[in-house]
Amino acid sequence: MTATAGSDPVTVAAGRAQLDPVTVECIRTLYRQMPNSFAAAIVVTVYMLFTGWPYTAHGTIFAWLGVQALSQVLRLGLFLAYRSAQPGPERLRLWAYFYTAYMFIAGLIWGSTLFLFWQQAQPITLALTMCGVYGISAGSVPGNAYNLPGCLSFIGTIFAMTFVRMLLIGDFGHIVLGVASLLFAAIMLGFARVQNRVLREGFAIRFENVQLLGEMREAREHAETAWRQAEAANLAKSQFLAAASHDLRQPLYALSLFSGALKDFALTDDAHSLVRNIQDNIAAMETLFNGLLDLSRLEAGAVKTSEHPFALQDLFDRLCHYFEPIAEAQGLSLACVPTTAWVKSDEVLCEQVMMNLIANALRYTTTGGVVIGARHSHDGGQDKVGLQVFDTGKGIDAADQARIFDEFVQVGNTERDRTKGLGLGLAIASRTVRLLGSHIDLKSALGKGSRFSFDLRRTSPGAAQPAPARGPAADLAKGLRVLIIDDDQAVREALNLLLSGWGLNYTVAADLAEARRAMAKGAAYQVVLCDYRLREGHVGLDFLTGLKDAAGDGPRPGLGLITGDVESDVMRRAQAADIFLIHKPVDPARLRALLNHLGSQAQTVEV
Hints:
The chain has helices at residues 9-17, 21-32, 34-52, 58-85, 92-111, 113-116, 124-144, 148-169, 172-218, 223-262, 269-300, 312-329, 347-363, 425-435, 489-500, 512-520, 540-551, 568-576, 588-601, and strands at residues 308-311, 333-336, 342-345, 369-379, 382-391, 441-445, 449-459, 481-485, 505-509, 527-531, 558-563, 580-583. It is α/β, with parallel strands linked by helices. Strands 1, 2, 3, 4, 5, 6 and 7 form a 7-stranded mixed sheet that branches. Helix 4 (58-85) packs antiparallel against helix 5 (92-111) and helix 10 packs antiparallel against helix 11 (269-300). The chain is globular. The relative contact order is 0.07.
């Protein structure tokens, strides 16, 4: 704001202090999502405890844990104080400063791990500590994108301390690692800046829509304009989710591949055990991230349904095939009641809902087993089929039955045991079923088990949909010739480390031009695996489709698309082109299975 001649200085100062509505909404959302960050902090804290325990003085570990616990108490106190104060827009700037100050303190605590947990006599401790530091930094981006100063104070502090620690060692390799860490911090801050811009644009469009909807109530002639603005808001949210899905999955993808590559090194049994701990914690981070993203997509309306008739028995067969080994490992039975029923709905979403319900039933059942089945019913003159999941678990108290569908709610898991899930499965299932035009019905009694069910529209038998390919071969064929295209340097480095230990003849290209040069040399690739988003706006799916079209009816390599995008259009295009699609992050086991599957389908051809 610029003061003009005759302006009151007090009024001018007050105007400068006034926050715009978009900034106000960013700060309020920042505090609303604070509880989500507790889970991520706990996961990485537990990881640091277990990986540091064999190498670091236990007194040091307990001292750090004490400071970490105090910081979480401080975070909780800040959150509760904000909720109690319910500050107006004129005071939110102060609360943004409080949060930024807290993030600086948190950055000091996490940055100190390189001084406390890294033992130079044990090189593995550097890799373990860096995994934790990189993980907590990358995971902080979604929550801190609402407040860039807070993001800068957290990530900047962590990696400034990392750089100082590397300088104190003083040799070339560690200095290079310190510089690389600063570059990683810059990349994370760049992601945060992009997401902050998209978020602010989304909030701005939402406010515009509110204004336009008010005008609709006053004047019906503005209805069409308001509709276009509402569509623009949904598009902005979808674009943000697509960007977040791709950009934030990349660090997790690279981290998963790096941890997988560690397994191929000549490590001690204790080191291998630590690598498994790393992978377990990375898997927990991926589960939390994917669950939060799924919830965000559902709430933003980015998930679109595609209905067609399908046989429930085919769905039940796939579910039993997947969950029977899991049930047997727990000493439980899994039974499927045969059915001839057909329904009309979105088969993919129905399968996701049933998988969440069955996984939840197995998780909370200790004796007996789980039964899945279908039951015919009538509702308002319409024929319905109820998909049902029964268990003989401990049951759910009536007082808890409504809230178990809320995010992060887990009855009987006050210790937050990650083996019992994160409390997102039922929330995602409930929202997905609502998207299908139904709702989840729960019948349960303590000590007698539970029954979850939801109704779908019954229909007549039709053409069966082809089932997705499952069950790759047992192991990779030695010498499998693979071309992988990914524009992310960290991912390429991780792939090179991983694939070199698998005995493959492979090329990892940074872009399409490099891939085409490798093909022009007459390399006979059996598998071509490509990222969806590439440099300069290139789309990996178009490249793979071109390879398929060029091969015509002749032999062609197995084609696979790896993507962080979760847009239904991408999945439908890949399905229509008969190109196998897998979503990031991809752990080494899934990558190995994917290469195996594509290699078994391929016919060697000089591309």
